[in-house]
Each structure stands twice: as structure tokens, then as C-alpha cells.
Write a structure and sequence with these properties.
Blueprint: H1 5-47, E1 50-54, E2 60-65, H2 69-95
Antiparallel strand pairs: 1-2
Helix pairs in contact: 1-2
Length: 96
């Protein structure tokens, strides 16, 4: 009755190990994509100076400063680091 159980258990262990490796890679890829998206948003927010409200014809009604210069610089720096880190993480996952 116990004739094939050892190799069957080993096959199940190998299959679970392969699934765990795949899940870990996909988790790292998802983290890299989230980091890349967040870095892009931070970069865009840091580079934007004003928010302007316009009319339907394209005329400018009013402009409001989005961030102060030191905050904008900080957002650009954090965005660049996050974008670079996210792209690096995605690259390392896709190379495996």
C-alpha cells in the first residue's frame, strides 16, 4: 500500500517549492511596479509648479502654486530614487 508514497511526496514538495519561488518573484515584481508608479507620481508632483483653472475656451482664470521650492526639490529627489529603485527591482525579477 505504501509503495509510491516517497516519490509522490517528493514530487509534491518539488511542486510546492516551484510555486513558492514563482509567488516570491511575482511579489517582488509587484513591489517594483508599485515603487515605479509611486516614483513617477512623486516626480510629476515635484516638477509641477502651478495648477491653473481654465475656461472652456482655454482662457486662464486663476493659477495656484502647487508646492514650495524646497518641497518640490524633495519630491523630485524622492521620486527619482523610488523610480530608479522600482525599475531596478523589476529588471532583476525579469532577468531571473
Amino acid at each position: 500500500m505504501e509503495w509510491g508514497t516517497d516519490w509522490e511526496r517528493e514530487a509534491v514538495r518539488e511542486r510546492w517549492a516551484a510555486m513558492e519561488r514563482k509567488r516570491a518573484l511575482l511579489t517582488r515584481l509587484l513591489g517594483g511596479l508599485i515603487l515605479t508608479g509611486g516614483g513617477t507620481i512623486l516626480l510629476l508632483l515635484g516638477m509641477a509648479e502651478d495648477v491653473c483653472f481654465t475656461t472652456a475656451g482655454g482662457g486662464v482664470i486663476e493659477c495656484t502654486q502647487l508646492t514650495r521650492p524646497p518641497v518640490g526639490l524633495l519630491l523630485v529627489l524622492l521620486g527619482a530614487v523610488a523610480l530608479g529603485g522600482g525599475l531596478w527591482r523589476c529588471w532583476t525579477v525579469l532577468r531571473e
